[in-house]
Amino acid sequence: MAGPQLGNCRKCGKLFLRIRDICDLCYQKQEDDYLKVTSHLRDYSSCTIQELSDATGVSVKQIREYILAQRILLRDFQNLSYPCETCGTMIQGEGKCPTCTGTLNHLLEQVDNKQEPQVTKERKSYLRVSSNRF
Q1: Is the pLDDT score of 1 beyond 80?
Q2: Residue 88: is its pLDDT beyond 60?
Q3: CB of 51 within 8 A of CB of 45?
Q4: pTM (two decimals)
Q5: Neighbour-count burial for 9-46, b at 16+ CB within 10 Å, e otherwise
Q6: In degrees rounded to 5, what are phi and psi of residue 122?
């Protein structure tokens, strides 16, 4: 069983004994920011993400992380949406808007269709080589 490891904090870069992805100071700041955000949302439930960021001093990126970690549930806040991670369109769903998700799925289908014949050709050539060896 491996003991704790040293690592760099993904937020500040400081070297620390790795228990989570971020050091204790950044974790405490993140939790304090979360309390600011939730407190403001209790009072102003109809605010947008930019208004929330401006009022609390917490970055839109950090608020988005709270949403993606489901610490803030969008169903409770109708005006709260965040930018699509690909194009920046404001969304209230998963990480990408429907347009970007459709484009990504289409590209993946194209890649899958192009790779299948190559695998078949490789198998045929492999069988041909193996049949000549015996």
Answers
A1: no
A2: yes
A3: no
A4: 0.70
A5: beeeeeebeeeeebbeebbebeeebbeebeebbeeeee
A6: -65, -40
